[in-house]
Amino acid sequence: MTYLDVFCAMPSGLLEMSLHFTLGLLSKPYSYFNNPSAMKLAYLLSEYPTLGHTYLLREVRQLRSMGWDIQTISVRRPGARSKPLSEVETEELNSTWYILGGSAMQHLVCHAATLASRPWRYAKGLLRALRFGQYHPRQTGMALAYFAEAVSAGHCLRKHGITHVHSVYSTTVALILSQIFDVHMSMTLHGPAEFTDPEGFAIRDKVRAAELVCSISYFGRSQIMLWSAAEDWHKLHVTPLGVDPAGWKLAQFKDRPEPFELVSAGRLVEIKGFPLMLEAIAELRRQGRNVRLTLAGDGPSRRSLEQQAREFGIAECVVFAGWKNQDELRELYAKSDIFVMSSFAEGVPVVLMEAMAIGVPCVAPRINGIPELIRNEIDGLLFTATDVSELVEALARMMDDAQMRRRMSLSSRERVNKKYNLRKNVEQLAAVLGAWIEKNCQQTLDQNTSPSGGGSASQRFRMDS
Q1: Cα–Cα–Cα angle for 302, 305, 308, rounded to 5 degrees
Q2: At what angle do helices 402-419 and 350-357 cross, to 10 degrees?
Q3: Do 263 and 277 have their domain in common?
Q4: Domain residues for 292?
Q5: Domain tally, the chain
Q6: Terminal C-alpha separation, the chain
Q7: How does pLDDT run across 186-208, given as a tens digit for each residue?
Q8: Domain presence at residue 294
């Protein structure tokens, strides 16, 4: 237990005794100690580690390298995959607490202990969950599952004395948890799913309950503002994602590649717009261009996409490569000449950052946070989403203008290094999270040292009571 944990969790009587010895230190702000290792934070995730969200693994490990004490808590274990976990993923797997997968008796004990110790808060969390269900049988069932998960997670946090939780892709569980337990809750909203159904996702309620809300783009911040109360906007911070440019060596540039290698990476689902990409490839082939597309990823749309490729007569120049780990993606990017994306909605895609970091020019839709990453005609080419003719034109321009591709190759790598550098952006995130934790713990210390500061620290931590 750290110095900060001791003072945040210490009963008021013992705290007052200890103040005789530490009054000089307590007169200074927490930042005086300049010790990031004192920052203990739980990361509440839906599934971890997972191939689809490798940037979360890098974010967590970068925070730990800065001295943070991060405890990952995942609702589910990682799903089945065709290849074994990497060494780093195995480390994360072994250190993560998993909510599902325990025995029924363990979950019953969590609920019984929580109901006995805080019956009104337990009931409040249950009512909050039922409101998510909106009296619809299927949604109510899901809401009750969220409630059960929230109680199990909160009981574990309470048992280990963790009072600050940052939620990513599990904000419904976090919201219910914050109604029941004495925790400070923050979250990151990545998009685009939250912005597609903001009311069903309860953005307004979640922003109201959270003490800190991070967005990975200014576009995302605008959508959170659109669906939340103006009095809560002060909680919002833009904390971009990033990659480590040092880990992505510049790919060898080819003036006139044969065939012209295109690559795209992502889950094979409708929102990614891959049918339009195949339509564009078919048109390029009709123009007599020697082009080949490799799709890295898998998903429910794979069979229909393979059928579409056959119908378009391009099956021989479309490779369905399946899921790739980070090392395999690096190799794939290094062999490619253009990264192409055709999505209908995105956050700020990390796969674009990775391609840019290795010097592969990108063609992507002008949607959501993508224009914040790629400056059109500078770092890559942007096209109007769903406009296949614009996509074909952009790809043709890239293929015909080697000088432009070379310029964009260098510019895009510089862009990532300057604006989407993992180390720099995690430092920015750490500063935001650190200020939030510091403020909360300093307030608790101030309350304990004030003449009217009676009562335990846990009583003063209560939220929504």
Answers
A1: 155
A2: 120
A3: yes
A4: 245-419
A5: 2
A6: 28
A7: 999 999 999 999 998 999 999 99
A8: yes
Query: Looking at the domain assignment, is residue 465 inside a domain?
Result: no
Instruction: Express each pLDDT in 29-54 by its tens digit.
Output: 333 334 444 579 999 999 999 988 89
Full DSSP string of 103-160: -HHHHHHHHHHHHHH-HHHHHHHHHHHHHHHTT-HHHHHHHHHHHHHHHHHHHHHHHT
Residues 356, 233, single domain; the answer is no
Is residue 419 within 8 Å of residue 356, measured between CB atoms?
Answer: no
Distance CA 7, CA 436 (A): 16
Query: Alpha-carbon distance 134 to 225, whole Å?
Result: 24
CA distance 461 to 18: 20
At 236 the three-state DSSP class reads strand
- What is the 3 state secondary structure string of 315-374? HHHEEEEECCCHHHHHHHHHCCCEEECCCCCCCCCHHHHHHHHCCCCEEEECCCCHHHHC
CATH number reported for the structural domain that contains residue 389 in this entry: 3.40.50.2000
Which tokens sit at 279? 């339509």
CA 307 to chain centre: 33
**C-alpha span between 391 and 277 (Å, rounded):** 8
- pTM for this prediction: 0.86
Indicate whether 65 belongs to any domain: yes
| Same-domain check for residues 350 and 448 | no
Pick from 261-270, 440-449, 454-463 the range whose average pLDDT is largest: 261-270
- Asked whether residue 109 is domain-assigned, the answer is yes
Residue pointed to by tokens 């034109």? 393
